[in-house]
What we know:
Layout (H helix, E strand, L loop, with lengths): L13 H6 L1 H4 L4 H24 L5 H13 L1 H7 L5 H4 L3
Amino acid sequence: MAVQAVYFSDRDGLDMALKNPETMLFTSKAEADARDKILELAEEIQVYLVGKVEGLGDEMAEKCAMAIAEDKDLFQKALKKPELLNAAQE
């Protein structure tokens, strides 16, 4: 039997990572670090959204923030070419 190292982000926590191994457990530290950076960005976006958009609840802000953080490269490109945001969905 072989031993395999797996990595996860502390922000997700071990319990959450074990419940969602296909998206939260990684075979390299670099992948886990990338996930951690997405989660860090999402946390900051969530705080911004809650403060900026009146009436936006924490749960919806969290969902929106994760969507933006996970597609941050698309959003960076869309700053120069806005039509890219919806072109990706077609």
